[in-house]
């Protein structure tokens, strides 16, 4: 603080200020009382930075007070996080002091909760500013069996194409389903899931084992149609290609 004040002020500037005569018990009374003489008050030239300090010395306390009202209520276990919270709370407090929410000193406060209202409006404005229009889903529509690219048959390769599984177009067209329903690996000694204990029966109309179209990472390198590793799926793709020739 002293370093900061001595950087801003050179100590050469003085301001005239009406000062009270110190009380008799005050430190350095004998020296200071000579300046006042008999008068209880006197206009004295005091260094500008002393004046500034006297005016604003409670500023830090006000900042602490402002921060204490609506501070970041979070448990911190890392050293830099409370620093961030401190800075955030300080910024919010300072912004409030500079905002029109804060009544100028001397004027009676129109609303007692102007600080709270400021925090609420700030929250709403920040949330509103963060709203982004929903992005359309990026996954491209999977091709059907007929959407082939007419290149020579020998250029079509059955290869691994994707990192996410897609429904096999050939199986979907032929209404083939998974031979074994997909089931997550069971942990040892864990309870059996209902899907395992309840068997699908022909007379049961309540529960049916979910058979689905097989999914695959493979497809045609040219047409980019998902085709699973069953022999008939690739054969059906080649058959459609050959039907054109
Ligand atoms: Zn193809
Ligand atoms: Zn298939």
From TrEMBL:
Signal peptide: none annotated. Residues 33-96 form the PiggyBac transposable element-derived protein domain. It comes from the Eukaryota. Pfam families: DDE_Tnp_1_7. InterPro entries: PGBD. Residues 178-208 are annotated as: Disordered. This is PiggyBac transposable element-derived protein domain-containing protein. The lineage of its organism: Eukaryota, Fungi, Dikarya, Ascomycota, Pezizomycotina.
